[in-house]
Amino acid sequence: MAQKKKNEPKNNSFHTLNYLMKIDQAIRNGEYPNANKLNKMLGTEFSRSTFGRYIRTLQDDYGAPVEFDFKKNGYYYTDNTFFIQQVMLKEGELLTLSTILPLLEQYKNTPLEESYRNLMNKLIEMLPQNITVDSALINNEVHFISDPITKLEKGVFENVLKATKMQKTLEMEYKTAQNTDYEIRRFDPYHMICQKGSWYVLGYSYHAKDIRLYAMPRIRNCKITKDKFKIPKDFKLSDHIDVQMGAWGNSGEKFKVEIEFVKGLKTYVMERTWHKGQTIKENKDGSVYLSFETNQLGQVVAWVMSFTGGAKVLNPPELKQRVADAAREILKNS
Known about the structure:
Helices cover about 30% and strands about 20% of the residues. By secondary structure, the chain is an alpha+beta fold.
């Protein structure tokens, strides 16, 4: 197999667009570029065939009116008002971009929100001042219904993320769901988790002397100490969270969950993947059987209850009991 030349242009979409814009700029500057001229300008080693492919891309994908001038041995635009930015994003790509923007909601109250918005602004700046787009693309036909967003105290996200990366102990004030007062805690952050609109940090709690999941909206006055920590070699993230069901109230034990859904929910249930490695099948009477393994029974309880009687717990007994207890509490408080 032939080895790639040291300065040969990289073959990916970002570098392709970059080279196309360089060629476009050279054409508009009246430099009549060809492979040799561009190699000298960029310090690359374009072959004539590679350069030819870029020219065909300009013609086919961007509609560039590019022709070869034999006297000047280079390419030029027959329409000198053309420039590649006018067609850099196609309508389908603009639609894709418009559907991405609502997803920023899940990063509210974190530095990632500003970073992503800055990225979007840079993309917008690359567009021409005047652009014609089908009105269907800007009528807000796409919506995302997200979970309620929790608020973080300023500096909490940054310090937790930095401490997690540097493996340094945090000192903070923390308030549990049951308490109204904050308590000073020391915590070794192992992993950050975003679950249903809220941020959590999993790690070692010096207060509990065990692995705990802290809700980041309940943290204030978070500071990074000079103390370093090491994550234990036997620590496994999968022992503490389930990326399909969630992360909360985990005993560490894995359970095989078996659920039966009523016939009326057959289509709804069977068209979805509820859990990695799930077993799902239709019963003879039209009901649906679903099973999977998880260490998050607490999250499964809430999920089963969301079907308002359309889901029957077959196993494990612990889950049947917890769902029954939850139903009794609902009736008690109604």
